Amino acid sequence: MCGIVGTLAASPVNQLIYDALLLLQHRGQDAAGIVTMQGQKCFMHKARGMVRDVFRTRNMRALPGNIGLGQVRYPTAGNAYSEEEAQPFYVNAPFGIVLVHNGNLTNAHALKDELFDIDRRHINTESDTEVLINVLAHELELAARDLPLTPKEIFAAVRAVQKRIKGSYAVIALIAGQGLLAFRDPHGIRPLCFGRAGNGDFMVASESVALEGTGHQLERDVAPGEALFVDMTGKLHSEQCNDNPQLNPCMFEFVYLARPDSVMDGISVYQARLNMGETLAQRVISTMPPNEIDVVIPIPESSRPSAMQLAHRIGKPYREGFVKNRYVGRTFIMPGQGARKKSVRQKLNAIGLEFKNRNVLLVDDSIVRGTTSKEIVQMAREAGARKVYMASAAPPVRFPNVYGIDMPTREELIAHGRSIEEIRQYIGADALIYQDVDAMKRVVAALHPGLAGFEASCFDGHYVTGDVSVEDFAAMREQRTSQGDEEDTAARSRLALQSGGEH
Question: Which portions of the sequence form the region Disordered (predicted)?
Answer without folding.
Answer: 480-503
